[in-house]
Each structure stands twice: as C-alpha cells, then as structure tokens.
Specification:
Layout: E1 2-4, E2 10-12, H1 18-32, E3 39-48, E4 54-65, E5 69-71, H2 73-82, H3 86-106, E6 114-117, H4 128-139, E7 146-151, H5 152-157, H6 161-171, E8 174-180, H7 187-192, E9 197-200, H8 202-206, H9 212-227, E10 231-234, H10 240-248, E11 253-254, H11 265-269
Parallel strand pairs: 4-6, 6-7, 7-8, 8-9, 9-10, 10-11
Antiparallel strand pairs: 1-2, 3-4, 3-11, 4-5
Helix pairs in contact: 3-4, 4-6
Bound molecules: ligand C2E and calcium ion (3 copies).
One calcium ion binds at residues 178-179, 199, 235.
C-alpha cells in the first residue's frame, strides 16, 4: 500500500502487500519475455461446417515463463496493456503470425487466412495501419490473407475507431468483430464500418441447446450478418449438436474445441480431415 511521507512525497511502505510485490515481479518478467523468447503462438483452426474444410486459423498468444509455466493470455494481456507493453507485444504477435503463414506455405500447407487479435490499447498510440503495413511488407504476406479481430468494445470506446478501421481497410486486410453480441455495438456503427466478419461470442454458443434466449440471439446475429452481407463465424463450438444447430440456421463457419484446440504450428501440418456434422 502507498503511504504519504512526512514531506508529502509518496513511498512504498514496507507493508506493501504481497500482491503488489508479485505484480511488480510479473511486470518485470513480462517486459523481458520477448527478448527471452518466452512468447509463442498457438493456432486454432476455423472450418467450414458442412465440408470440414480449413478456412483459416486464429493466432492466440502464450507466455512460457520459466518460473510460472505457460501463462494464458487473460493473465498477461491486461497487464501488458497497463504497463505500455502491448504495442511491442502486439507487433511481435502480428509479425510471428504472418511469418508462420509463409513457413506453412514453404512446408506445403496452404492455410487460406490468419486471424490476429488487436488490443484496444494498440489503437491509442500512433498509426496502427502503418505498423500492420510494415509487418506485411517485411514478411511478404498478402494483406488479403490477414484478418484482424477487434472486439465490439474497442470499436465503441475508441474515439477514432472508424478512422483507424478505414485505414486498415485501405491496406487490404480483413476485419472481424470479435465477441459479437457481448458489447453494446450500435447497428448504425456496424453499417459504417468496412468489416467483413462477425464472430458470435462463445457465451451464446455454449448453451445453445438449453437456453432459448441464447438460441434466439445466435439466430438473430446470423440473420443480421446475412442482411449486412457479412460472413458470420461461431466461436467456442464444442459439440456436434452446436455445429448442426449453426448449419441449420445458416451459419457455416465455426471454430472451437469440437474441431481443434489451439495447437502448435507443426500440429496443423497433420491436420487433414475434420469432422462433418452428424
Ligand atoms: P478470443 O479472441 O475470444 O479467443 C478465443 C478464446 O477461446 C481462446 O482463448 C481459445 O483458446 C478459446 N476457445 C476456443 N475454442 C473454444 C471452445 O470450444 N471452448 C472454450 N471453452 N474455449 C475455446 P485464449 O487463447 O485463452 O485467449 C483468450 C483471449 O485472450 C482471447 O479471446 C483474446 O481476447 C485474448 N488474446 C489471445 N491472443 C491475443 C493476442 O495475440 N493479442 C491480444 N490483444 N489478445 C489476445
Ligand atoms: Ca479473437
Ligand atoms: Ca472471440
Ligand atoms: Ca470470446
């Protein structure tokens, strides 16, 4: 805990909580994680439900800390955002993801598309479009094979979101709205945005067979996507029943444990035929 000194300046009292110390240690370790080669990516297949065809992968970041083991993103992305490390991390992720696409190609595996997540904080500093264009130029990946995922809240909470999104669109990359349905996106906004894809949040898919509200929302999002001419992909598909439900209601794209967990790059080479419904 912070205490105020006699002269009015602040210092960390010896009673500083264990949690505070722990956070500082984590912060210091995270700052060095890239240079120490502790950051890596997993890739999760995105598939066409009716054919099982691989249409793309989503890159998901991991931190392999010698002290902590493999740390999941929900434990370090918010920290990276707080300490101003997310730009560096985000650029590393994008570069690595694009490079991996080229590597797979050299190994004879054609992955049509790669999806990469962007953090709201990456929109706050400088031109994100310039960063993306630089990475594409350096790696040689065709912009059309890159899809950037931003959450609804990023779009609604970033003042110049539309300008940034337009800049990204101008480079030729695809844009997806992640976790769709959980934020408070205005449909008017959606109409203005040059996005191509809506990702239905996992929370709606989870209870599809038991919760009629979740079913209704899922169907509504699929319909909305259709009317706006967007492609719709469902995340968190874990069962054949969920896949069948989606297909029946006109959503033919899915991602989830039913098809594959996020995997290391070499595992995707062995990824051949995936499940067909039923
Ligand atoms: P997200 O973008 O919504 O990513 C999907 C998350 O759902 C991933 O968790 C994935 O492993 C998990 N998932 C996929 N299929 C299933 C399923 O069938 N069932 C269940 N229960 N979970 C499933 P992960 O990898 O732990 O990532 C969590 C979040 O961390 C991501 O959510 C994303 O918001 C963030 N994240 C991951 N990588 C990055 C990154 O490179 N940059 C940024 N800014 N955020 C990232
Ligand atoms: Ca995502
Ligand atoms: Ca998501
Ligand atoms: Ca989600």
């Amino acid at each position: 805990a912070k205490a105020r000194g006699r002269n009015g300046y602040q210092f960390y009292a010896p009673s500083m909580t264990g949690e505070g110390v722990e956070r500082l240690r984590l912060e210091a370790m995270l700052r060095r994680s890239i240079e120490k080669n502790e950051i890596f990516l997993n890739y999760q297949p995105q598939v066409e439900i009716d054919t099982g065809r691989l249409i793309g992968v989503e890159a998901l970041v991991r931190w392999n800390s010698p002290e902590l083991g493999v740390v999941p993103p929900f434990r370090f992305i918010p920290l990276a955002e707080d300490i101003g490390f997310i730009s560096q991390l985000g650029k590393w992720v994008l570069y690595e993801a694009c490079r991996q696409m080229i590597r797979w190609e050299e190994q004879g595996l054609s992955v049509p598309k790669i999806a990469v997540n962007l953090s709201v904080k990456q929109f706050e500093r400088g031109s994100i479009a310039t960063m993306v264009a630089d990475v594409l130029a350096e790696t040689g990946l065709d912009p059309q094979r890159l899809q950037l995922e931003v959450t609804e809240s990023v779009i609604m909470n970033t003042g110049d979101a539309l300008a940034f999104i337009n800049d990204l669109h101008a480079i030729g990359v695809g844009l997806a709205i992640d976790d769709f349905g959980t934020g408070y996106s205005s449909l008017a906004y959606l109409k203005q945005m040059p996005v191509q894809t809506l990702k239905i949040d996992r929370s709606f898919i989870k209870d599809i067979s038991t919760d009629i509200n979740d079913e209704a929302i899922t169907i509504a999002i699929i319909q909305l996507g259709k009317s706006l001419n967007l492609s719709v992909i469902a995340e968190g598909v874990e069962t054949a029943e969920q896949a069948e439900f989606l297909l029946r209601h006109g959503c033919n794209l899915a991602q989830g444990y039913y098809y594959s967990r996020p995997v290391m790059p070499h595992a995707l080479l062995e990824y051949s035929q995936v499940k067909e419904p039923g």
